[in-house]
């Protein structure tokens, strides 16, 4: 028997089993996807470590999956017919029950004594989020346990309105424009509320002239090297840390912890699916071209859903390049938890500015951008914020 375990590298330690892609008794080949794990950032497939038959499932849907935990086992003895585990029998009965239920209505299910205490944390949060009474959902998990998928289906078909000690099901009509919450959206909402509750946000606004990097970018492109403006922004942000190291730190109960490396997350929009933040690790040691290549690769993988937990964890600073979608200024931008600051970069547009030319004021047209630094005021004060932004703008405007 070969163990199937939760990978050691993932986004923190908070992961749950989203779904099994094989049933007990199914044949599998090496590296066949077996099970999906979900964190607040990514959905990750765990492949089969060996060829054989899925013999056991030990962590069911919505079970917490900490690094190294045993998910199941693969039998490599192909000569023997695999025994269906008790877990598999339960899954079979649950599948039959699910087929018998109507997909457009909820069936009242009498909770057994103590069932409420067996709800997983993610199921509890979803029930509370939507005001759903657990006793009105028929669970399809192990021993009739309610899974997160059961809650999601309930949300699609009805709203449970709780009043006092009683609960009644009220039919709700969904329009074609309604967008049911998925797990990523619920987790984003939870993180945003916690961030603004725990961290006092203060935002400073500067503007930067992108003429120098526009010229540098064009010169490289003529030689065959194409870079995005984001690569320049990441490089400048990493260099600006030297004047205010606390920007690259975080608040802890007994100290301000300064990260030994500059690990910069870059917000990447996934359309209707939300936002994900792949991290350029140790950006301070990378060249401009290396940063550009890393960004291209991670952006592609993010949009193809191929990021691993390690790709979106461990950031010490974040950049939100919200200008790519048209906004001039966004404030405040919510600080990523366990960080002290986030840089916002607005839309690049030509604006009229006054500059001194040959000792005289001149009105010029330049490619300008508003840049903001939102800080956790427990960690960073105004003079550090302004020092960092001043240096960042100097680097951008003096690029050669």
Molecular structure report:
With 400 residues, this protein is α+β, with helices and mostly antiparallel strands. It folds into 3 domains: 2-99, OB fold (Dihydrolipoamide Acetyltransferase, E2P); 101-170, no CATH class; 200-397, Chloramphenicol Acetyltransferase (2-Layer Sandwich), CATH 3.30.559. 27% of the residues lie in helices and 26% in strands. The chain has 8 helices and 20 strands. It has helices at residues 86-100, 121-130, 148-157, 183-198, 211-222, 229-240, 288-303, 382-397, and strands at 2-5, 16-20, 27-28, 33-38, 43-47, 52-57, 70-75, 159-163, 166-170, 201-209, 249-252, 255-258, 264-266, 268-269, 275-276, 279-280, 317-320, 341-345, 349-357, 360-376. The strands form 6 sheets. Strands 10, 13, 16, 17, 18, 19 and 20 form a 7-stranded mixed beta sheet that branches. Strands 1-7-6-3 form a 4-stranded antiparallel beta sheet, with no helix packed on it. It has a 3-stranded antiparallel beta sheet with strand order 2-4-5, with no helix packed on it. Strand 19 (349-357) and strand 20 (360-376) form a beta hairpin. Helix 2 runs parallel beside helix 3, helix 6 (229-240) packs across helix 7 and helix 6 crosses helix 8. The longest helix is centred in the middle third of the chain and has 16 residues, at 183-198. It is elongated and about 85 Å long. The protein starts with a strand and ends with a helix. This is Dihydrolipoamide acetyltransferase component of pyruvate dehydrogenase complex. Pfam families: 2-oxoacid_dh, Biotin_lipoyl, E3_binding. Forms a 24-polypeptide structural core with octahedral symmetry.
């Amino acid at each position: 028997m070969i163990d199937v375990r939760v990978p050691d590298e993932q986004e923190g330690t908070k992961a749950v089993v989203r779904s099994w892609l094989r049933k007990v008794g199914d044949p599998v080949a090496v590296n066949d996807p077996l099970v999906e794990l979900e964190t607040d950032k990514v959905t990750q497939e765990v492949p089969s470590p060996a060829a054989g038959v899925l013999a056991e499932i030990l962590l069911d849907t919505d079970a917490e999956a900490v690094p190294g935990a045993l998910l199941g086992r693969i039998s490599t003895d192909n000569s023997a017919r695999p025994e269906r585990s008790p877990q598999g029998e339960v899954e079979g009965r649950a599948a039959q029950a699910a087929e018998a239920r109507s997909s457009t209505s909820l069936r009242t299910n009498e909770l057994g004594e103590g069932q409420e205490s067996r709800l997983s944390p993610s199921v509890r949060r979803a029930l509370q989020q939507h005001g759903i009474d657990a006793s009105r959902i028929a669970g399809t998990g192990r021993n009739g346990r309610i899974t997160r998928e059961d809650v999601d289906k309930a949300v699609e078909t009805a709203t449970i309105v709780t009043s006092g000690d009683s609960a009644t099901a009220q039919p709700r009509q969904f329009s074609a424009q309604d967008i049911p919450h998925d797990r990523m959206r619920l987790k984003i909402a939870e993180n945003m509320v916690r961030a603004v509750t725990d961290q006092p946000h203060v935002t400073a606004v500067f503007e930067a002239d992108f003429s120098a990097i526009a010229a540098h970018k064009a010169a490289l492109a003529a030689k065959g090297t194409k870079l995005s403006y984001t690569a320049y922004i990441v490089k400048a942000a990493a260099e600006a840390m030297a004047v205010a190291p606390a920007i690259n730190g975080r608040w802890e109960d007994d100290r301000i912890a300064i990260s030994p490396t500059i690990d910069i997350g870059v917000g990447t929009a996934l359309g209707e699916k939300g936002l994900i933040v792949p991290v350029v690790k140790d950006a301070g040691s990378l060249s401009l071209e290396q940063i550009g290549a890393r960004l291209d690769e991670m952006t592609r993988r993010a949009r193809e859903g191929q990021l691993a937990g390690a790709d979106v964890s461990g950031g010490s600073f974040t950049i939100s390049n919200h200008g790519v979608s048209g906004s001039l200024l966004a404030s405040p931008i919510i600080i990523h938890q366990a960080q002290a600051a986030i840089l916002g970069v607005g839309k690049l547009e030509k604006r009229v500015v006054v500059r001194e030319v040959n000792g005289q004021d001149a009105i010029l047209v330049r490619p300008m951008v508003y840049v903001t630094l939102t800080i956790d005021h427990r960690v960073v004060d105004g003079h550090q914020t302004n020092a960092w932004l001043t240096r960042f703008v100097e680097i951008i405007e003096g690029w050669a």
